[in-house]
Amino acid sequence: MRGSSEGGIRERLIAFFFTANGILTIVILMGIFFFLAYIGIQAFFEIPITEFFGMNWNPGAYTNPSWGILPLLAGTIYVAVLSLAIAIPLGVASAIYIAELASPTLREILKPAVEMIASIPSVVLGLIGLIILAPLVADLFNLPNGLNAFTASILVAIMALPTIISISEDVIGSIPDSYREASLALGATKWQTIRSAILPAASGGIVAASMLGLGRVVGETMVVLMVAGNSRAFPTSIFDPVRPITSTIAIEIKEVVQGDLHFQALFALGLILFLMTFAINLASDIFLARRQIR
Question: Does the keyword Membrane apply (predicted)?
Fold first, then answer.
């Protein structure tokens, strides 16, 4: 009886610990949101919403500062979309190889190697981009400067790969063997089994992995700050220099007076970025949960 009572107390304490951690996480998330919203919304008392979504961002002008964020938003979208266009095919192909084709020994080497990519500091990737990748891109495409959205996207795609590969590999590995056995029993080859049986069954998880990767690339700061070119002009090509929202906040926050309109506008940018990443992660979680229910 005593042992059973101690076990019940221990289980309740463990349940309380995890519940408290969950509540604390939600409180921190809500605190960040309300902090950003409290300061950021004050900017709209002086900046008309139509001007805020205009085409020119120049809050430091002496005579007529402008607050249009569309060039910054376009730079963010350019880098995010192009990064995913690079990372998704490479990530899914790597996940298929690790889960379905690699030998058990090679799989045990590749999985931690992929996860180690996530541990590379973004400033190191930025340096590699500055010294090696940007000159290479400039030479290959005959550009005057290799610091642009394309170069930044390649590096950000590398940063998104661990998320896409790890989740996709877990999803593919969780497909029951009966799918493979049934396909092979019907005379399908290994590749036909992967293409026609495994990938359709794992498609929901792969989409969720891609969306989580999107949330990762949208919030990246250091790499885009170092190699995206930091131009406030509206980009018309992937080879144009861009300044995503994250770079703008990092560059300008140290130059503003705390509490002034520029300071509030940067918090408004942060609020928009927060809502974008929150919506992406929420959508991926909902999508993944629905697939698991089915």
Answer: yes
For residue 110, CA distances in Å to 75, 94, 102 come to 33, 9, 9
CA distance 125 to 222: 9
% of the chain at pLDDT higher than 90 = 29
What's the pLDDT tens digit per position in 100-132? 888 888 888 888 888 888 888 888 989 999 999
State residue 191's pLDDT score: 87
Question: d(Cα 112, Cα 146) in Å, to the nearest integer?
Answer: 32
> Distance between CA atoms of 123 and 155, rounded to whole angstroms?
11
* Contact of 22 with 14, CB cutoff 8 Å: no
Q: Is-contact 175 198, C-beta < 8 A? A: yes
Considering the entire predicted model, what is its pTM?
0.84
| Res 157: pLDDT | 92
Distance CA(25)–CA(184), nearest Å, equals: 46
- Number of neighbouring beta carbons within 10 Å of residue 107: 16
How many CB atoms neighbour CB 182 within 10 A?
A: 13
Dist CA 63 CA 148 (whole Å): 30
